[in-house]
Amino acid sequence: MGDLGELFGSLVMIFMTAAITNNFILSQFLGICPFLGVSKEVPTAFSMGLATTFVMTTSAVCVWAVNSLILVPLGLGYLKYVAFILVIASFVQLTEMVIKKVSPPLYKALGIFLPLITTNCAILGLALMIPMNNYNFIESTIFGLGAGAGFTLAIVLMAGMRERLEFADVPAALKGAPITLLIAGLMAMAFMGFSGL
Amino acid sequence: MLTLWKDFVKGLWKENPVFVMLLGMCPTLAVTNTATNGLAMGLATSFVLLGSGIVNSLVKRLIPDEVRIPSFIVIIATFVTIVDYSAKAYVPAIAESLKLFIPLIVVNCLILGRSESFASKQPVHRTIADALGMGVGFTWALTFLGIIREVIGFGTVFRGTSLAIQVMGEWFQPWLIMVLPAGAFLTLGTVLGVMNYFKNRAASVKVDLQDSTGESCHTV
C-alpha cells in the first residue's frame, strides 16, 4: 500500500510540475506560436488546448515506445530527432483521421488546428524531455497529460484577457503582438509564484 | 546581381523574421537571456537555414508535391542533428545552456516557412542569398534582445566568455526579472511596441501586427 501511495504521489508531482510550475508556455517558451495566434477567443482557444492535449498525451506514449523499444536497443540514438518528428507528424495525421470518423462535430470544431499541431514545438519539446528525464510508460502518459493541461490553462486565460482587451483603449503602437506579449510577461510573473509549491 | 542583393537585404530589416514576421518566437524568447546565447542560437539556426535551403532547393523537382512538407522536415532534422552533435563536441558549455532549443530548431517555423515559400520555388543561388539574409536578420535580432536583457538583468554583455564587458557600475542593482521567463515577454513586447511607434509616426499608416501574428506560423 505504501508503494502505491508513493507511486501516486510521484505521478501527481509530475502532473503538477508539467502543468503549473514548469508551465510549457509561460516558463519554458514551448508552443508560443499557437499561444499568440489562436488566443483571440475563448472557445477556439479551448478547442486548440484540447486538441494539443490529446496529441501530447498520445504522442508521449508513442515516443516512449519508439525510444525505449526501438531506438535505444538498436543503438540508433542519433536518429532521435528524425524519428520523433515522423512519429508526431504521422500521429497528428492519424488523430485527424480518427476524429473525422468518430466525431464529425469535434472534427469541424478543431478544423485547421489539428494539422498545425505538427509544427508546435511544445510537442517535440515534450517528446525530447521524455528520454531526458528517463520517464517510464505511466510517467510519460501523465507527463503528456499535465503538459497539455498547462497549455490549455495558459491559452484559455490569455484568450479571456484578450476578449476583454477588445474593448480597452490600447495605445496604437502596442496593438496586436506587443500588448499580447506584455500580458504574457505579467502572466509569467504570476506563475512564478507557484514555483515554491 | 541586383536580385541576389535584394533577396539578401530583405531579411535584415524589411522582412526581418523576428521583428516583422514574428517567426521562430520560441527560441527568440527562450534563449535570449544573455547575448552569447542569442548569438549562438542565431548562428545555429542560420546554418540549418542555409543547409536545408540548399538541399530543399536542389531536390524540389524530385519530391512529389504531396509529400513535400514531410520531406522538408526530415531534411531539416538531419541538419539539426549535425548542428547538435557539432555543438556538443566543440562548444559544450553553449550546447548545455541552449539545451532543448537546438533540437527544437527542427520545428522552427522560420526554417520550414522559408523552405516552403522560397527554396521550393527559387533556384539555388537565390535560395542561398535569401537564407543568408534571413539568418543574419534572425541572428542580429536575437543578439540585440540578448544584449538588452543581459545588460539590465546582469549588468554585463557576453558574460562567461573572453569578450565579457561590465557595462553597469557598482551602483547598479540588477533586475533579475529580465533574465527570467517573464523578462523575455516584457522585453520583446516593449521592443515591438517601440518599433511600431516609430513606424506609425514615420508612415502614419496603422500597422496591424495582429494579422501577421495569427497567420505567421500557420501558413506553412
From TrEMBL, chain A:
One GO biological process from the UniProt record? electron transport chain
Which terms are listed as keywords in the entry?
Answer: Cell membrane, Electron transport, Membrane, Translocase, Transmembrane, Transmembrane helix, Transport
The residues that cross the membrane are 12-38, 45-66, 78-99, 106-130, 142-160, 172-194
Q: Which NCBIfam families match?
A: PRK05151.1, rnfA
UniProt subunit comment: The complex is composed of six subunits: RnfA, RnfB, RnfC, RnfD, RnfE and RnfG.
Role description = Part of a membrane-bound complex that couples electron transfer with translocation of ions across the membrane.
Name assigned to this protein: Ion-translocating oxidoreductase complex subunit A
What organism is this sequence from?
Orenia metallireducens
**The organism's taxonomic lineage, starting at the top:** Bacteria, Bacillati, Bacillota, Clostridia, Halanaerobiales
Automatic annotation (TrEMBL), chain B:
In short, the EC number is 7.-.-.-
Subcellular location field: Cell membrane; Endomembrane system
**Major location (coarse):** membrane
TM region(s), chain numbering: 38-59, 71-91, 97-115, 127-148, 175-198
What's one GO-annotated cellular component? endomembrane system
Q: How does it assemble?
A: The complex is composed of six subunits: RnfA, RnfB, RnfC, RnfD, RnfE and RnfG.
One Pfam annotation reads Rnf-Nqr
Function (record text):
Part of a membrane-bound complex that couples electron transfer with translocation of ions across the membrane.
Work out whether the entry's keyword set contains Electron transport: yes
List keywords of the entry alphabetically. Cell membrane, Electron transport, Membrane, Translocase, Transmembrane, Transmembrane helix, Transport
**Lineage of the source organism?**
Bacteria, Bacillati, Bacillota, Clostridia, Halanaerobiales
Family, similarity comment: Belongs to the NqrDE/RnfAE family.
Q: Which GO terms describe its biological process?
A: electron transport chain
Membrane-topology descriptor = Multi-pass membrane protein
Output this protein's name: Ion-translocating oxidoreductase complex subunit E
Q: Which domain of life is it from?
A: Bacteria
Q: Does the keyword Translocase apply?
A: yes
